[in-house]
């Protein structure tokens, strides 16, 4: 397979000003006719030669300006169609046949359950029609969908519906027109027998937009929350970014078989049903939060992605990083901002830091790839969002808004690069961000070492900061980055002390941010009247690993007193990490002060309850793994369990009472305060069930009586993990009995089993793969069992006989032929082999080699496996 390089970018030889697509749906095949108005790109001295992309297409005919061409007049390659001797402008008509019912890769046009749908980003359109399948070719689309009358009552495409009629041959033809030129990756088509929830939204300029959510009939009672989230997103984008929706209609369609969460096709978003459908009985609070965030994310793409799009796929983070930053701002405003920050950082520090430290490490703007689908990564999305967040921190709310306004105004209707985004921020604020742009170019997680010393006589505190970024594959000798480091000084009573620091230009009065721009810098704080406790990297102001020596006593102090909510949590996590390390070396016990602190957190009535549930929760096994080398999953698991048991025993005298207090008499609502209360209640339940049979009894009662999935699922988890074998089996059986008709709930049931260190064995996973509820062709099922097993049930996955690895490798080999994107995603845990203890490392490597030796490896799998082994 070929590697593509950013440096090789060239503009297209032709533009496609207008695309008229006719899609004729038949039971066994689909015929596609593309009429393309092409125009030579003046900027290029092209020889009149045009190569279109195409994959798995059966070419039927090619015509130029109405004249059918003979087969000698064009060349058909494996994945291309080339015409030469072309003039400045033509109407090019291409007919081809495709087979959506056989499309298990779920790219292009495919069947999902009883419907047709599409996924074209990044390079799926070429599986529908020959085309210039690249995001800098933007075209005005008119789409006709033709099918037997009555077969597919709902037939949708982008833009506005312009015609709907039954033709002379009795077939129905529905036509859509999208007035906004767009790259073909934003094309979408849906046909099915669907129900719709309808609403309207009046934009800030007073236009009324029709809002529609289409679902299969059985799901119509699960659409309300997404509609509510959509309306809130539309309002928020007007208020916070000044962005108004532009078409007359905005549609969302839910489909069961989908590779990712959702897709922002212009005016016609297509969603994985797990990211849009919810009602209280079937969806947990975390599902509600996910739906809110994803609905917003896809909606926000209408500006950051669709109106202004990417020139090429190396610029993917231009739209993804920015849009994740935008949806995080929305979720923070709708819920607790601190909790949102904690959740995002948790994910970044486990998954993204691991990616940065592994064989697939790449910059936010990669400079090469083999398969672009492999680059929809946490680095592009989450680290990309962190980089935008740092710009926000550097420029302030107002400056950032000026920059984003300029960006949207300047580039509306264009396909641009990350450079243009930063340039707009620079121009709007009169600031030079050249050094800052290294964040886009350098892979790897920077390490910041901090050392401080206090001089009581001079009343000064000296803080020395050093930064370095480790080598990553293909990248050495990293330059110093511009790192905004927010901090505060706390006095002995836990109050923020005033901060006066030199060098003076490093100081902004409002935000207390130091600008670390060199490999090493020393900052001196003046008039520091007592030895302060340092709270560094507040709000996680930069995506770095901070190394700063703090004793358990100091961490406990920050956990209790830090005025920055994020750093309170982070101090607690560091303290707990320290406990886990002690437990590993057999010298762990909680001090009196630590026990008192835990109990008072449990009983706290001031703090947000969702925050409390995070404060009382241990760092995950993957987080612990990220901070230990070499990684011994079993040792980490046992040490963490030891600490969990100690915490639960410390809290035990108060758990029953707190659990009762946190019960709510009010009917379930997916709103922040209730969610927070349930989160804390269910955390209390899990500690209680861990150490007491009364807790298990309470879990049993909650399981039987719950009127919402959040409580039912939490109780099920407690029973499965802490009940007797009989209790666990019975609960799982009754849950399946109750929910077997609901595929999304069944997925949660699969995950509970696959992710439980107690239940998941290689044999039990094999059974789940044989279960009637499992389906290799459905990505949600594959993720629920195999993804959850390999990423969460770490002790079970890392079996010393390699059976866990072999099971995953078998699945990857099987999926390689069904759905290469899914196969490639499942490889992630295997890419970490170098960090494991030697005995496991070798076993994992052997499985990678076994995968590599297979014939017919997809580009997706080939790229990840070969990079992992090199
Ligand atoms: N842009 C899509 C992702 C498409 C994935 C292509 N393999 C979803 C999103 O980020 O909004
Ligand atoms: Zn996105």
From TrEMBL:
Residues 553-869 form the Peptidase M1 alanyl aminopeptidase C-terminal domain. GO terms for biological process: proteolysis. CDD domains: M1_APN. Its EC number is 3.4.11.2. GO terms for molecular function: alanyl aminopeptidase activity; metallopeptidase activity; zinc ion binding. The keyword Cell cycle does not apply. Its cofactor is Zn(2+). It is an enzyme of class 3 (hydrolase). Keywords: Aminopeptidase, Hydrolase, Metal-binding, Metalloprotease, Protease, Zinc. Residues 444-549 form the Peptidase M1 alanyl aminopeptidase Ig-like fold domain. It catalyses: Release of an N-terminal amino acid, Xaa-|-Yaa- from a peptide, amide or arylamide. Xaa is preferably Ala, but may be most amino acids including Pro (slow action). When a terminal hydrophobic residue is followed by a prolyl residue, the two may be released as an intact Xaa-Pro dipeptide. Residues 225-436 form the Peptidase M1 membrane alanine aminopeptidase domain. PANTHER family: PUROMYCIN-SENSITIVE AMINOPEPTIDASE. NCBIfam families: pepN_proteo (TIGR02414). This is Aminopeptidase N. It comes from Bacterioplanes sanyensis.
